[in-house]
Amino acid sequence: MNIEHAGGRTHRGRGMARRLARRFLPAIRGSIMSLASFVQRMPKAELHLHLEGAVSASTFAELAARNGVALPAGKPVAELYSYGNLQDFLKVYDLVCASIRTADDFSRVTFETLERCALGGARYVEMFFSPHAHLAHGVAYATMLDGILDGFRRAKERYGLVAKLIPAHAKPLGVEGGERFLDMVLAERPAEVIGIGFDYDERPNPPPMFAGIVERARAAGLNVTNHAGEDGPADYVRDSVDVLGLGRVDHGYHVVDDPALVEHCRERNIVFTCCPTTTLTTTVWRNLAAPDHAIRRMIEAGLNVTIHTDDPAMFGTTLDREYALVAENFGLSPQALKTIALAGLQAAWLDDGVKQAWIADWSAEIDRLIDTELPLPS
Questions:
Q1: Are 349 and 128 in contact (CB under 8 A)?
Q2: Res 13: pLDDT
Q3: Which pLDDT score, from 0 to 100, does residue 374 have?
Q4: Which helix (DSSP H) or strand (DSSP E) does residue 125 occupy?
Q5: Is residue 1 part of a domain?
Q6: pLDDT at position 23
Q7: What's one GO-annotated cellular component (predicted)?
Q8: pLDDT in tens, 46-62
Q9: Which of 68, 260, 288, 351 is the 20 to 30 A CA-CA neighbour of 7?
Q10: Nearest to 347, CA basis, from 297, 304, 295, 299
Q11: Residue 313: inside a domain, yes or no?
């Protein structure tokens, strides 16, 4: 990916819009909110979003109370989403999953999620969800699909947002569990289900374990992606690419530990769906402003990096905020943000004719926004 940097580096903190405006706007032109408006209005594709991680704390608390799920004692709603590492996060994530029981629950959380996506400038969303976590509480797969697809329909009617679905297999359930998962997905497969993913704890579950499942899914016409290299080693990224044959890897940050692998992935144009905010909790890179942050290094190495939210409600972020963070911390110009946004759309599992038409439309729209929202000096 050929990314143009705006130069310089700033720290995180308050007043992001003001700092961004100072960087990109001449002092006598535009408003301090111009870049914030640009980032929000720029059309974007959200390819790495977990439905359950997008449930707001207030909705979580309400559904938990209604469905008899006990929450941590003494914690106010505002503090439900607090954790220091990936394992702590997954414990809370499982509680959120346990709170979503009915088709109406699924429809509600899906619509609320897509509404926030639309308000953050997303036009197209590929959404992961975790069937196993709901099956464990007696929720039928058909109930999940009915509710989620109703939420998709409502969001499209209200916001024009197009959404697709990626059921994800939890790696700790192993190969046998993965085979049952794929059987379930193939047995009830509406058009909105476009692929499968693999997530949860990756370290004890190397990618080659799931090669047979990936082969079956691909033979059935499903796309496949894999969470790898978030807290697992660079070899898991390599195995995702070379053993599983994937062209898209979720996270992938530890690719930077292996220069030969970086070159290999660059040559093959492997897509990395990166999520800046969650790296601050789930990875060893806890400072976005640091020059050695993995996403910054991936971009500078020319890898095909796309930007997404992961679990936006559970980490207090939105898609437009993620773009603003990389602009601020990595010194990316508006044209660089455009490149990333279009790379996200190019990586989407869409019909190629539709995709190319959208790319042309989005490119022209972003150029108009740059001209009107960010009147840069000639």
A1: no
A2: 37
A3: 74
A4: strand 122-129
A5: no
A6: 44
A7: cytosol
A8: 999 999 999 999 999 99
A9: 260
A10: 304
A11: yes
Asked if residue 254 lies in contact with residue 268, where contact means CB atoms within 8 angstroms, the answer is no
Closest CA to 123 of 360, 272, 352, 345: 345
Q: What pLDDT digit, counting tens, does each position of 275-317 carry?
A: 999 999 999 999 999 999 999 999 999 999 999 999 999 999 9
6 in a structural domain: no
pLDDT for residue 55: 98
Tracing tokens 């794929």 back to the chain, one arrives at 182
Residue 138 burial (10 A CB sphere; 0-12, 13-18, 19+): exposed
| Sequence-ordered strand ranges (E) for 232-319 | 248-251, 271-274, 304-307
Structure tokens at 26: 């001449």
pLDDT at 1: 60
- Measure the CA–CA gap between 348 and 126, rounded to whole angstroms: 8
Domain that holds residue 119: 16-373
- C-beta of residue 213 within 8 angstroms of C-beta of residue 178: yes
pTM: 0.91
Q: Which residues are catalytic?
A: 230
- Listed residue (59, 33, 38, 34) closest to 116, CA to CA: 59
Report how many domains make up the chain.
1
**Does residue 23 lie in a domain region?**
yes
Contact 111, 151 (CB under 8 A): yes
Please list the residues that pair with 49 across neighbouring strands: 127, 310
CA-to-CA dists, residue 184 to 95, 181, 189, 217, angstroms: 23, 5, 9, 12
Q: What share of the chain is helix, strand, coil (3-state, %, to 5)?
A: 55, 15, 30
Which residue stretches of the chain have pLDDT < 70?
Answer: 1-34, 375-378
